[in-house]
Write a structure and sequence with these properties.
The protein has 162 residues and is α+β, with helices and mostly antiparallel strands. Helix content is 34%, strand content 14%. It is built from five helices and five strands; from the N terminus they run βββααβααβα. It starts with 5 loop residues before the first strand and ends in an 11-residue tail after the last helix. The model has no long low-confidence stretch (mean pLDDT 92).
């Protein structure tokens, strides 16, 4: 597991932050069993304050410098997702239609998101339910997605029976 510059407590998980050269390199959702880490640099301190602001107000807008990562296509998807307002959701298909691509490609870009919370992929749902999260279709990551949606007062669809 990488060394984190911050591991912050959230109600449903811990959130790890790695910084490099004054920019966020990665944000990770972690099990609560991962030990908390106090911020060890200025950017990690800023991230911790902004996480607290988000916890107090889910409509809070993050303002943290991020490393340039991802393909041009992934960045297009992430920009579209970042424009989804708090309290609202779109389906993978709706995002895909807007970008003139396929829903599966949107889902893959969501799964490759290095900056969850800042790029709110949790606001993108499947056409028949909550969909996946972080390249996972069940378990810990879906519980995080449900918590984030509830925290932001987003409607959570019922899953279709298979």
């Amino acid at each position: 597991m990488p060394e984190f510059d911050l591991v912050h407590e959230f109600p449903a998980m811990h959130v790890g932050v790695r910084a490099e050269a004054g920019r966020l390199a990665e944000i990770c959702f972690l099990p609560r069993s991962v030990p908390l880490v106090a911020p060890n640099n200025r950017l990690a301190e800023r991230a911790a304050r902004q996480f607290e602001n988000y916890l107090a107000n889910p409509d809070y807008r993050f303002n943290l410098p991020r490393a340039e990562v991802g393909t041009a296509f992934q960045r297009r998807v992430w920009d579209a997702i970042a424009a989804i307002p708090c309290g609202r959701t779109l389906t993978y298909g709706q995002v895909a239609k807007h970008l003139r691509t396929g829903p599966r490609a949107v889902g893959q870009a969501c799964g490759a998101n290095w900056f969850p919370l800042l790029i709110p992929c949790h606001r993108v749902l499947g056409s028949g339910g909550i969909g996946g999260f972080g390249n996972h279709g069940e378990g810990f990551h879906l519980e995080i997605k449900r918590w984030l949606l509830q925290h932001e007062c987003c409607p959570i669809p019922h899953e279709r029976a298979l």
